[in-house]
């Protein structure tokens, strides 16, 4: 192990509570902009202690550093006599889950990295690569608010806005670009966005945008969207205006999603969804007024929790293994469906 950016001494641990059901024991990893989370998930599907370690520094070598950290954590997480059969690795940025090719990470600085090949060369286990929002979405579909549905959209309203799209029970990947609705324009000539455009969904309806716009318009610096909701509830008209724009942008964006794939449910997660009825009430009403031709999809709050990405990694690892097992059985000509 040559990498020095990962500091095991700073590793923190806690325990996940949601089980994913019986199956092969696997290792699950969720790489975020600041932290890598990792857990061993046993044959009952119960995740053990979650280890956390800092993500590597921004730069082109961050991809190799991530895989080195994964190898190191895998060794520490594997219990004696219960070897995992596969590993799920969820990554941020633009990632093609099907090929394991990562085009870009804004937070960690890699570009055009073949993670599938990198993992094959450094890890002894079969690896399933996932994308953060789609992995969290997969957990939401199997364990959370999307359960029982086949066509659904899981939207994360956090620092940015992104979605996981599931059609007929399958995630839509599109080389890693599916669900990137954050930079779709919803308010023409609206708020300037970091991408250079104006009126992007992310520029008005992300949790970060709500806090930023309110701070600027009111002259009172707030740390997050929660304070804006509190101000609105207390009668602050600037807060109400900022919130209305956020709801309007989101309603427009979701109306297009509903028109295009008619999801059975739209799941909303991330910081803004924590506003509860302050968000869901006006959003349902506005969406209903916009959708005159297709049914209005139910809006529900995400339920898979803060470790959804990690649980999604474990689910992806299990699925990859199932496909491998199916193929090898087919190769022997003994598998009958
Ligand atoms: Zn944008």
From TrEMBL:
UniProt cross-references to Pfam families, sorted A to Z: ROK
Top-level lineage group: Bacteria
Gene3D superfamilies in UniProt: 3.30.420.40
Family membership noted in the UniProt record: Belongs to the ROK (NagC/XylR) family.
Protein name as it appears in the record: Glucokinase
């Amino acid at each position: 192990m040559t990498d020095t950016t990962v500091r095991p001494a700073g590793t923190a641990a806690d325990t996940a509570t949601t089980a994913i059901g019986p199956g092969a024991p696997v290792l699950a990893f969720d790489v975020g902009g600041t932290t890598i989370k990792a857990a061993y998930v046993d044959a009952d599907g119960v995740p053990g202690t979650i280890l956390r370690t800092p993500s590597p520094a921004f730069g082109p070598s961050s991809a190799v550093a991530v895989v080195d950290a994964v190898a190191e954590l895998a060794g520490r997480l594997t219990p004696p006599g219960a070897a995992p059969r596969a590993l799920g690795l969820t990554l941020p940025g633009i990632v093609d889950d099907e090929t394991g090719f990562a085009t870009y990470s804004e937070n960690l600085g890699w570009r055009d990295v073949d993670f599938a090949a990198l993992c094959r060369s450094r890890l002894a286990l079969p690896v399933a690569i996932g994308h953060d929002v789609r992995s969290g979405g997969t957990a939401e579909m199997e364990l959370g608010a999307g359960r029982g549905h086949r066509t659904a959209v899981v939207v994360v309203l956090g620092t940015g806005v992104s979605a996981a799209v599931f059609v007929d029970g399958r995630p839509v990947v599109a080389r890693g670009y599916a669900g990137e609705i954050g930079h779709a324009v919803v308010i023409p000539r609206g708020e300037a966005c970091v991408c250079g455009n104006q009126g992007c969904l992310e520029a008005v309806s992300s949790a970060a945008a709500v806090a930023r716009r309110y701070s600027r318009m009111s002259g009172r610096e707030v740390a997050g969207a929660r304070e804006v909701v509190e101000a609105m509830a207390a009668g602050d008209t600037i807060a109400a205006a900022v919130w209305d724009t956020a709801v309007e942008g989101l309603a427009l964006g979701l109306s297009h999603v509903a028109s295009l794939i008619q999801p059975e449910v739209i799941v909303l997660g991330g910081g803004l969804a924590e506003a509860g009825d302050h968000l869901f009430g006006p959003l349902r009403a506005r969406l209903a007024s916009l959708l005159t031709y297709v049914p209005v999809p139910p809006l529900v709050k995400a339920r898979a929790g803060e470790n959804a990405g990690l649980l999604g990694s474990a689910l992806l690892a299990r699925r990859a293994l199932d496909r491998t097992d199916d193929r090898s059985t087919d190769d022997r000509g003994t598998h009958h469906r």
